[in-house]
Amino acid sequence: MGHRNDARHHTARGRALGLGEVAHDHRWAGDVSSAVRCSAVLFALLMLIDWAAGTFTAERGMLWTTLAVWLFVVLYPARVSVGEGWLAARGLRGTRRVRTDLLVSVRCLDGVSQRLRLRDALGSRVEIDPQVLVRNPELWHRFAEDAHRSAARGTLTCGATALLRISERIDRETAQTVFKVSGLD
Question: 3.40.50, 2.60.40, 2.30.29, 2.20.28: which CATH number matches 79-182?
Fold first, then answer.
C-alpha cells in the first residue's frame, strides 16, 4: 500500500509536472542480494555446526533463524532516489524524504559505517550511505545541483565541508577509473 509521501508517488508526480527525471541507486538490487546471501550463509553455517555437534533442537533452529533475519535487517540498504528538489531513502521502516533545494545541514557521521545526515528547512531528516552518491554519478549530480542552490539561497548553513569531501572522493574515484580503463594505473 503506497503512502502519499511514497517515493513512487513523488516520482510519478515529478514526471507528470515535467520536473525532470528521477535518478535511482543502480546497485541497490545487488546490495539487497548481498544482504540475503550473508544472512543465508550465516543461517546455513549455524545450522550445519549445530547439526554436526548433535545439539540441534527446534528452539535452537528458531534462534538461528532469528539471528539470520536480524542480520538481514541490519544489512538491508536504503533505496535512494533523487529528483529535482528532493531526495528519498526507502528502507524497511518506510520512506524518508528531504527537500534538497531547502537543505539546512549536511553532516558526515563517522562510526562503524559512515553516514551522511541531511536536514531540510521543513525539519525532515534522512541518513544515507555516502557511497551511494559516490557510485552513482547521476544521483550525485542532481543532489549537488540542489545543494548548491540551497547554499546560494542561504539556507545551507552547515555542510560545505561535507559536500566538498564527497565531491573530492567522487573526483578521486572517477580519475582512478579513467586511469584503470586507459591502462595508466
Answer: 2.30.29
